[in-house]
Write a structure and sequence with these properties.
The chain is an alpha/beta fold. It contains 10 helices and 7 strands. About 40% of the residues lie in helices and about 15% in strands. The longest helix has 19 residues.
């Protein structure tokens, strides 16, 4: 399904990124792994980066090869970190890296952004998202402080994922002339190294969510959907956010709408 495709997988050292890298190789692709932690597992080449640092991303982009067929933006940090770091890495860094990689992508390439069930409430955050649309790295601290992003429980994480979902939709046709498409995937609770951080931060919200779940997800539940969107089978899927969450989003939407 991905034979001879050159795929970048960020966050390749653990969790969903590691499983995605493994699956891409199994499906015939060449994996360019990117992470802040070094690894040799299931990657053909590896680059170290700090997605919260503009200079680090600039150096990475310069070092990466041309002709990349797919970009899986999976790297991210949990809501237990400070709000500025969460917004920098999970939103600003992802956007900056992706935009600077466009010229290195092959025609017909696919971009897959890992969002989250936490981004489900984006319609209620449109004004904040608009304000943050053009934020640079050195403006994040002021934005977080002036919009109380760090005041609410896990708000920085929720906001970053809401904004990423919206950014994905907005770029549905941006690179259509080259056949480059972008989509997002929103997992629910997944058994990864940072799951405990989510449970710690969300508290009662996490307990309520777990009551309606048959089980937590695993990276093996998410990676095949990433691979599907990276493949040539999805040229007409554009600007879509796919929930891969055991029905959690459907449950939330039914509850919100009295269904």
């Amino acid at each position: 399904m991905l034979t001879n495709k050159k795929i970048i997988v960020t966050g390749c050292a653990s969790g969903i990124g590691a499983e995605t890298a493994r699956l891409v190789k199994e499906l015939g692709g060449t994996v360019i792994g990117i992470d802040r932690n070094e690894t040799t597992e299931n990657v053909d080449s590896f680059y170290k980066v700090d997605f919260g640092d503009k200079a680090s991303i600039d150096a990475l982009v310069q070092a990466l090869p041309d002709g990349v067929d797919g970009l899986a933006n999976i790297a991210g940090v949990p809501p237990t970190l400070d709000a500025e770091t969460v917004v920098r890495v999970n939103l600003i860094g992802v956007k900056y890296f992706t935009l600077n990689m466009i010229d290195k992508l092959a025609d017909g390439a696919s971009i897959v952004n890992l969002a989250s069930l936490a981004g489900l409430g984006w319609p209620n955050s449109v004004e904040q998202i608009k304000v943050a649309a053009d934020l640079d790295f050195d403006q994040v601290a002021e934005f977080v402080a002036s919009h109380d992003i760090d005041k609410e429980q896990a708000r920085s994480y929720f906001f970053a994922k809401e904004a990423l979902v919206v950014w994905t939709m907005q770029h549905r046709w941006t690179w259509r002339d080259r056949g480059i498409r972008v989509n997002a995937i929103s997992p629910g609770a997944v058994e990864t190294p940072i799951l405990k951080d989510f449970l710690e931060t969300l508290g009662k919200k996490a307990d309520e969510a777990r009551k309606v779940m048959d089980r937590a997800g695993t990276p093996k539940d998410i990676a095949p959907v990433v691979a599907f969107l990276l493949s040539d089978m999805t040229p007409w899927i554009r600007g879509v956010n796919i929930a891969v969450d055991g029905g959690q989003a459907a449950n939330a939407l039914c509850g919100m709408n009295g269904l």
